[in-house]
Amino acid sequence: MKNFVQKSFSFDLLAPQDLLSGVPFLVGNLVLIPVCEANKGCLVTVYSEGIFTLSVTGQTNIGDALYLHTDGTLNTIKQ
Q1: Rounded CA gap, 33 and 50, in Å?
Q2: How many percent of the chain have pLDDT more than 70?
Q3: Does the predicted model carry a pTM greater than 0.85?
Q4: Most buried residue among 1, 47, 54, 57 by CB atoms closer than 10 A?
Q5: CA-to-CA distance for 25 and 53, rounded, in angstroms?
Q6: Distances from the Cα of 50 to the Cα of 43, 53, 65, 70, angstroms
Q7: Cα(35)–Cα(19) distance, rounded to whole angstroms?
């Protein structure tokens, strides 16, 4: 995972969908970041806290709220 910045809290779970390393996904209202790629149903280690470098689509300004969408994209549009 190339976007990892600082160690944080991690745990293992069964992937609820196919996952890509470093691409955030939602489980309920929890934002999780997988350490590696995983197919749906496979055990994967995820981070729930920490500092990560993530891609944001669209234009943003300092202080803007960001929203994570079901496709893994982050932007300022609340859906």
Answers
A1: 10
A2: 95
A3: no
A4: 47
A5: 15
A6: 21, 10, 18, 21
A7: 10
DSSP three-state, residue 70? coil
The pLDDT mean for the chain works out to 88
> Virtual CA dihedral for 12, 67, 6, 3, nearest 10 degrees?
90
Distance of alpha carbon 36 from alpha carbon 57, whole angstroms? 22
Residue type, 40: K
Query: What is the chain's length?
Result: 79
Cα–Cα distance measured from residue 7 to residue 70, given in angstroms and rounded to the nearest whole number = 25
Hey, what amino acid is at 66? L
